[in-house]
Amino acid sequence: MLGVDRIARAAALAASAGLDGLLIAPGPDLRYLTGYSPLSAAERLMVLVVRPGEEPVFVLPSFERGDAPDGLRYVEWVDGEDPYSAATKLLGAGRYAVSDATWALHVLGLQAAAADASLVSMSAGLPLLRAVKDADELARMARAGAAVDAAFGALLDVPFAGRTERDVGEELTGLLREHGHDSVDFIIVGSGPNGANPHHGVSDRVIAEGDMVVLDFGGFVAGYGSDTTRTVHVGEASDEHQRVHDVVRQAQQVGVEAVRPGVACQDVDRGVRAHIVAAGYGEYFTHRTGHGIGVETHEQPYIVEGSTQPLEPGMCFSIEPGIYLPRQFGVRIEDIVAVTDDGVRRLNESPRELLVVG
Ligand code: ZN
Ligand code: ZN
Ligand code: ZN
Question: Which helix (DSSP H) or strand (DSSP E) does residue 278 occupy?
Answer without folding.
Answer: helix 265-278
